[in-house]
């Protein structure tokens, strides 16, 4: 299967967004856990 550079760039951008979302979610969760 041939993967184009454009596809790789899109995938890496998506991964970056996903990791940023996970970081925000984990920080929110830690704040809630501390509040308990």
Structure description:
By secondary structure, this protein is mainly α. The protein is 86% helix and 0% strand. The chain is built from one helix and no strands. It has one helix at 5-35. The model has no long low-confidence stretch (mean pLDDT 89).
Number of helices: 1
Q: How is the main sheet built?
A: none
Count of beta strands: 0
Give the DSSP E fraction (strand runs of 2 or more residues): under 5%
How would you state the average pLDDT, rounded? 89
Low-confidence stretches: none
Task: Give the secondary structure arrangement, pairings included.
Layout: H1 5-35
Keywords:
36 residues; mainly alpha; 1 helix
Summarize the structure.
With 36 residues, the protein is mainly α. Helix content is 86%, strand content 0%.
